[in-house]
């Protein structure tokens, strides 16, 4: 018995090891003269926020032995590679002109630094878990030589650390480069460079609990922030008015249809086209295992989004909390595998008693399969460039173990529970043996036309916030807040539900009973507009290069695909509830 319990506990212990160990307040208290942990992290071009390399890929001053800090799964996936450094910052101790090292740069080293300065490279460090940034060098374009050799390139050889503290805790840190202490690296010649640094300590009244707030405040100017809020309120008002008008019109139309149906007048009865579909509208949809897999994967992703919002509201997720978001994604997605199995198997078993295992299997690979293939391609590109985004083999092995030992058993458990608690599909009317022939309809009533309408309206409501979200994901500033994202997510769901119901009703009025798959495509069409906007966003940005382009489109494709499955599932559920309701009302009449 004890051995069985230990075998059950082991996978969950492995999952807990992936999380970030959150330091308590006592871990961030220092006495005067105590050394505060400082790590160098990575470097990269300013315009390509996802293209990062290890700090010592550039020939900076290195300690005798490079020691990598132990990192969580999320930190590794985020491309963080924290390493020790020669810089020593002791709490409350100021320093002036401390020599970090004397370094001789050969022509290759000079070429590396110059190439980094041309691409506007920055470096990132962590001081007491606070991220801060600085630049490698500068270009002075105005210093053109007479022989036309071009601009001058200068390497910063001095940095000043300005630290703010409150009591015995660190609150804020900045790295300032001295433009007067530079070395000219325009030509490929050997150079002797002396790297130095200063440390300044200043007291502040900002409490320790608010020290991460400055990263959120660095979002936008106040005017832009007001415009942002105005756009959001405008989208909400327009969406509410649209949904109200749509619901009132639909309710009035349905009441008229039911009145004509119950009147017994043959002329009026012919106007209610959808009544003739009572024997076909609840027919078992084609490709049932795949449809149930969409429901399972979509429900799992919807649960994932909701859990992330909860963690954000609880303060677990906040800007620059190293790797916490990616760690949370892995853990929540793993644990919600049971949701995918249950949703897929329970829906499948309502129509067919055997074969639910296929739907559960499909739900496991429907999102994760394409995602892993794209990640494998991205990882291959990152490895070829030597970027920090490349996932080490050990991390890949850990992910495989987590999915094998935890996700798959939970998926199977959810499927078994869903099958055992199955209930027969209760259709308001009996289904005919032979399917009714579907009359031809205008082009705008077909799937592409309805997808365009169903995707354009929700996208128009969220486009402003979508731009802010992309600016946050592919930039350095926090341009949006969890509360705003949550409200827009609710608006997106409500618009998807409203349009799905309305377009399903329009489809039924022309006596087209094949609404199952079309409702999924209608709901998920917003994701197509999101992906199209990501292309526009990329073209308007300053991002460039093979690596950054690959990262951008791989991740945006995965994000949009996740939204397609989520919104498609919501649309299908809404259409099913609507059709059940109206045909139940017809039966009652």
From TrEMBL:
<dbReference type="GO" id="GO:0010008">
    <property type="term" value="C:endosome membrane"/>
</dbReference>
<dbReference type="GO" id="GO:0000139">
    <property type="term" value="C:Golgi membrane"/>
</dbReference>
<comment type="similarity">
    <text>Belongs to the nonaspanin (TM9SF) (TC 9.A.2) family.</text>
</comment>
<dbReference type="Pfam" id="PF02990">
    <property type="entry name" value="EMP70"/>
</dbReference>
<dbReference type="InterPro" id="IPR004240">
    <property type="entry name" value="EMP70"/>
</dbReference>
<keyword id="KW-0732">Signal</keyword>
<keyword id="KW-0967">Endosome</keyword>
<feature type="transmembrane region" description="Helical">
    <location>
        <begin position="324"/>
        <end position="348"/>
    </location>
</feature>
<feature type="transmembrane region" description="Helical">
    <location>
        <begin position="360"/>
        <end position="378"/>
    </location>
</feature>
<feature type="transmembrane region" description="Helical">
    <location>
        <begin position="520"/>
        <end position="538"/>
    </location>
</feature>
<keyword id="KW-0472">Membrane</keyword>
<protein>
    <recommendedName>
        <fullName>Transmembrane 9 superfamily member</fullName>
    </recommendedName>
</protein>
<feature type="signal peptide">
    <location>
        <begin position="1"/>
        <end position="23"/>
    </location>
</feature>
<feature type="transmembrane region" description="Helical">
    <location>
        <begin position="482"/>
        <end position="508"/>
    </location>
</feature>
<feature type="transmembrane region" description="Helical">
    <location>
        <begin position="451"/>
        <end position="470"/>
    </location>
</feature>
<feature type="transmembrane region" description="Helical">
    <location>
        <begin position="390"/>
        <end position="413"/>
    </location>
</feature>
<keyword id="KW-0812">Transmembrane</keyword>
<feature type="transmembrane region" description="Helical">
    <location>
        <begin position="550"/>
        <end position="572"/>
    </location>
</feature>
<keyword id="KW-0333">Golgi apparatus</keyword>
<keyword id="KW-1133">Transmembrane helix</keyword>
<feature type="transmembrane region" description="Helical">
    <location>
        <begin position="290"/>
        <end position="318"/>
    </location>
</feature>
<feature type="transmembrane region" description="Helical">
    <location>
        <begin position="229"/>
        <end position="251"/>
    </location>
</feature>
């Amino acid at each position: 018995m004890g051995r069985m319990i230990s075998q059950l506990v082991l996978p969950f212990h492995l999952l807990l090891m992936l999380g970030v160990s959150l330091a308590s307040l006592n871990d961030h208290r220092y006495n005067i003269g105590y050394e505060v942990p400082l790590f160098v992290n990575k470097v990269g071009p300013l315009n390509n926020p996802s293209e990062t390399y290890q700090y010592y890929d550039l020939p900076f001053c290195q300690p005798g032995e490079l020691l990598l800090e132990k990192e969580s799964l999320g930190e590794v996936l985020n491309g963080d590679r924290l390493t020790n450094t020669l810089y020593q910052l002791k709490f409350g101790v100021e320093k002036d002109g401390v020599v970090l090292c004397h370094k001789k740069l050969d022509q290759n080293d000079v070429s590396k630094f110059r190439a980094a300065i041309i691409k506007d490279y920055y470096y990132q460090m962590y001081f007491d878990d606070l991220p801060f940034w600085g630049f490698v060098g500068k270009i002075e374009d105005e210093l053109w030589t007479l022989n036309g050799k071009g601009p001058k390139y200068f390497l910063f050889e001095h940095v000043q650390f300005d630290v703010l503290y409150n009591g015995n805790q660190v609150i804020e840190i900045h790295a300032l480069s001295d433009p007067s202490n530079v070395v000219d690296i325009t030509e490929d010649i050997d150079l002797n460079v002396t790297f130095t640094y200063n440390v300044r300590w200043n007291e502040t009244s900002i409490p320790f609990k608010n020290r991460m707030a400055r990263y959120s405040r660095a979002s936008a100017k106040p005017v832009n922030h007001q415009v942002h809020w105005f756009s959001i309120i405008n989208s909400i008002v327009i969406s509410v008015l649209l949904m109200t008008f749509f619901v009132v019109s639909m309710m009035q139309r349905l009441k008229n249809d039911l009145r004509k149906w119950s009147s017994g007048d043959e002329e009026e009865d012919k106007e209610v086209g959808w009544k003739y579909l009572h024997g076909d509208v609840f027919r078992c949809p084609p490709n049932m295992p795949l449809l149930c897999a969409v429901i399972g994967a979509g429900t799992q992703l919807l649960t994932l989004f909701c859990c992330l919002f909860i963690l954000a509201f609880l303060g677990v997720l906040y800007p620059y909390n190293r790797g916490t978001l990616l760690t949370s994604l892995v853990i929540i997605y793993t644990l919600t595998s049971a949701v995918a199995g249950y949703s897929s198997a329970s829906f499948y078993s309502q129509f067919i008693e055997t074969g639910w295992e296929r739907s559960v299997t499909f739900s496991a690979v429907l999102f994760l399969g394409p995602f892993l293939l794209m990640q494998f391609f991205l990882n291959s590109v990152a490895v070829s460039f030597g970027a920090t985004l490349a996932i080490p083999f050990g991390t890949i092995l850990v992910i495989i173990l987590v999915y094998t030992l935890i996700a798959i058993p939970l998926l199977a458990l959810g499927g078994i529970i869903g099958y055992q608690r199955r209930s027969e599909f209760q259709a308001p009317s009996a289904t005919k043996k032979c399917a009714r022939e579907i009359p031809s309809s205008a082009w705008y009533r077909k799937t592409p036309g309805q997808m365009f309408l169903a995707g354009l309206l929700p996208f128009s409501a969220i486009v402003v916030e979508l731009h802010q979200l992309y600016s946050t994901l592919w930039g350095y500033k926090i341009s949006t807040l969890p509360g705003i994202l949550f409200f827009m997510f609710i608006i997106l769901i409500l618009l998807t539900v409203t349009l799905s119901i309305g377009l399903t009703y329009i489809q039924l009025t022309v006596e087209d009973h094949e609404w199952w798959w079309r409702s999924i495509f209608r709901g998920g069409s917003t994701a197509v507009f999101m992906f199209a906007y990501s292309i526009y966003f990329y073209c308007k940005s300053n991002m460039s290069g093979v690596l950054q382009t690959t990262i951008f489109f791989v991740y945006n494709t995965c994000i949009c695909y996740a939204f397609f499955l989520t919104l498609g599932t919501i649309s299908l559920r809404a259409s099913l509830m609507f059709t059940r309701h109206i045909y139940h009302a017809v039966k009652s009449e």
